[in-house]
Amino acid sequence: MAVYTQVSAEAMAALLHAYGLGTLISAKGIAEGVENSNYLVEASAGRFILTLYEKRVDAGDLPFFLALLDHCADRGLPVPRALRDRDGRQVQSLCGRPACLIEFLPGVSLTTPSAGQARAAGEALGALHAALADFARERPNTLGPDGWRALAARCGAGLDAIAPGLAARVARELDFLAAHWPADLPRAVIHADLFPDNVLMLGDRVTGMIDFYFACSEIRAWDLAVTHSAWSFSGDGTDFDPAIGAALVAGYAARFGLSAAERAALPVLARGAALRFTLTRAWDWLNTPADALVTRKDPLAFLRRLDRYAAQGETLFA
Amino acid sequence: MAVYTQVSAEAMAALLHAYGLGTLISAKGIAEGVENSNYLVEASAGRFILTLYEKRVDAGDLPFFLALLDHCADRGLPVPRALRDRDGRQVQSLCGRPACLIEFLPGVSLTTPSAGQARAAGEALGALHAALADFARERPNTLGPDGWRALAARCGAGLDAIAPGLAARVARELDFLAAHWPADLPRAVIHADLFPDNVLMLGDRVTGMIDFYFACSEIRAWDLAVTHSAWSFSGDGTDFDPAIGAALVAGYAARFGLSAAERAALPVLARGAALRFTLTRAWDWLNTPADALVTRKDPLAFLRRLDRYAAQGETLFA
After folding, report:
1. Contact between A249 and A228 (Cβ < 8 Å)
2. Coiled-coil region(s) at which residues (chains A, B) (predicted)?
3. Do A108 and B291 touch (CB under 8 A)?
4. Are B83 and B75 spatial neighbours (Cβ–Cβ below 8 Å)?
5. Predicted local confidence at residue B287, as pLDDT
């Protein structure tokens, strides 16, 4: 969400030359995505995003992410492909960091999407799953169900510092999910973080899906549950908009299909999604100074979703 | 240097409509300038910078800055003018902050300018002074000589925490400058902060002068001294490049002119410039957490310049 590494205009001009993209016209550091440094670069050949991978993205995972983006772009999806330089390389070394020059996609992220826009997002997620159906690579979900208990333990007493009783609430939920987690649903590579931030739109049209750096092998319907938890509530988790939730699921089902077993599992999967973001936000909250470069996101915004899914899950997906 | 205020795409689209600039195509928060929030906004009618004024810019000063930019743009200078909405207003209220939609200028800020580029920057500063010669408004230099002693006192013992002996060094310099500060040089409105960051270039051509939020009424040649101190040294202040310094002064003198009295005063003015940035950076250093949104700039980078100007001032401007 900030520019951690300053890249000189001279270094950017040299990079553009290596890609055969002409001369440098403008470059602005942008506040976007996970903890990478990003620049919006204008060259005589067009506009591009220059990403330097900082802490959160493991360089060893880059080949997976880049292959995934190529795979989806080859199938016509609006995802930002990493360009290849004159020697065919997608990953450079810049200022000591792995770096990619990435396609620029038009569109803006919505704060208050309409039901029509939510339906388009659901359709886009369905199209993504269709494109990924024959994607052969795998990547474990490092933030998936298997890791939640350990993550809660690492947060420790900090959970109750965030909200009294949170540790016990999380422990109860972990037990519930362990007992009720669906066992036999189809698995595939998924986006795993398709928040409104990560969907670019122009009007009712999806023009980009971005920020695939949590993509992993997981229960496929979990992706729809994550998206539902992210899109259907107000940011702070207090208000649920049934029209948005229904439009997301309908768009997804129309584009990709949703089995009866997957549909039936959505309330439990959504509890898992809400717990996942409660826990990862809690961890970040406890380990990020209040005045750090990264804006801390409120873990309670997802605890509220969790409570709502736990109390009314069937209704919310009716 | 960061995005402090999040503006929704919906609010930006409404703003563009108020300016008659068509629909919103893209918007990226950018890390630029003093402590404002800035977005690079693409509309169907072109690209613009949306600035929300946060802490450092006093809203009461905005009319001065906007009039200055209009004055210079009317005279053909590459400065970013604030646009007017359909009702003729330049200043909006957005998310509770004063905000302007500003022209986008191409070009990049250089990290290691050549002598030819420094000459172009000197010429651009001369052209700015020529354009401002008949600019009638005034704004006091709140970071000028009259305020340095008080600023040093506010830093207090913190100066010695930054570097042992710094408080005494600053006190000696304040005495020296009080005794030798030029009294009768021409005064005008100046930029006062024309660091390489604030000059956009394409090749050897200046395509933009930006960030006028320190502009004020001051000894005119002080602007050249500030620019000299900013451009002629390596960032950390250890290396001086005489070719850059000479090119800046030559470009300025060729474009605007430099009297013998102004030229003779440059070494003392440059000591003042180096002290000004030593003190303001020291203040920011002492009052900014190490992990804050804003990158702290090393005060010693300008103390080194100060020492160099004090020891060799005549030579550095020979």
Report:
1. yes
2. none
3. no
4. no
5. 86
Q: Rounded CA gap, B201 and B53, in Å?
A: 25
pLDDT lower than 50: segments of chain B: 1
Task: Count Cβ–Cβ pairs < 8 Å, chain A vs chain B.
Answer: 89
With the C-alpha atoms ordered B252, B255, B259, B262, is the resulting torsion angle positive or negative?
negative
Does B24 contact A at CB distance below 8 Å? yes
DSSP reduced 3-state for A198: helix
- Name all domains of chain A by residue range, CATH numbers in brackets: 9-103 (3.30.200.20), 115-316 (3.90.1200.10)
Chain B residue with CA closest to A205: the answer is: B25
DSSP state of B298: P
pLDDT in tens, A138-168: 999 999 999 999 999 999 999 999 999 999 9
Residues of B in contact with A35 (CB under 8 A): none
Which segments of B132-246 are extended strands (E)? 187-190, 199-202, 205-209, 216-219
Helix (H) or strand (E) holding A47: strand A46-52
By residue count, chain A amounts to 318
φ, ψ (nearest 5 deg) of residue B111? -95, -40
Q: State the complex-level ipTM.
A: 0.85
Query: Where does chain B show beta strands of DSSP type E?
Result: 24-30, 37-43, 46-52, 92-94, 97-103, 187-190, 199-202, 205-209, 216-219
Task: Tokens for B298, please give them.
Answer: 């090393």
